[in-house]
Amino acid sequence: MTWTPADIKDEIMARWVAALRDENKYKQTTRGGLRDNTGWCCLGVLCDIFKDDHPDSEWEELIRGRFSFRPSREAVPEENYLPAAVAEWAGFRLGHHDGIDPGNPTMNVARPDKARDHEGLALTNDHGASFQTIANMIQEGNWHVGSEQAD
């Protein structure tokens, strides 16, 4: 499944970018997953913003200090991937992008300035790109997210 940012809601994008730049609220982790006891992945921050608007969603603590996110009481909790309910709420449009690496089972990003450097948005986070850098990428619209996870 591939999500494109073309239709991301301006208000959601502004909240996401502001949250990523708020070093007092969200400490970044680079250990994989949406959230752990040391901090947040950039996609976990988006899930937390979703939670602000959806009180029936919740974070569930797992073993080894990791957390999963459940977008509703009926939904299956997700530890590593952006849940479809969150992507749809944010206004991502389902589509396809040639730059997506089909062998990467994590969230993907394609940047026009690095056509051969298709690394997941989550992996961009986990490889040490700061929340500031990721916020700039989101604001500039030079990214795509998707998952090869089964629907």
Give a written overview of the molecule.
The chain has one domain (2-146). It contains five helices and seven strands. The protein has helices spanning 10-21, 42-53, 84-90, 121-126, 131-140; strands at residues 2-4, 35-36, 39-40, 58-61, 66-70, 93-94, 145-146. It has a four-stranded antiparallel β-sheet. It has a three-stranded antiparallel β-sheet with strand order 6-1-7, with no helix packed on it. Helix 1 (10-21) crosses helix 2 and helix 1 (10-21) runs antiparallel to helix 5 (131-140). The longest helix has 12 residues, at 10-21.
In what order do the strands lie side by side in the largest sheet? 3-2-5-4
> What fraction strand?
5-15%
Q: Terminal Cα separation, in Å? A: 7 Å
- Give the overall shape: globular
The sequence of SSEs as H and E is EHEEHEEHEHHE
- What is the residue-mean pLDDT, rounded to a whole number? 78
Sketch the major β-sheet. Answer: 4 strands, antiparallel
Structural class based on helices, strands and sheet pairing:
alpha+beta
How many distinct domains? 1
Parts with pLDDT < 50 across at least 5 consecutive residues: 95-118, 146-151
Number of separate strands:
7
Computed over alpha carbons, the radius of gyration is 14 Å
Roughly how much helix do the residues carry, as a percent range? 25-40%
**Counting H and I runs of at least 4 residues, what is the number of helices?**
5
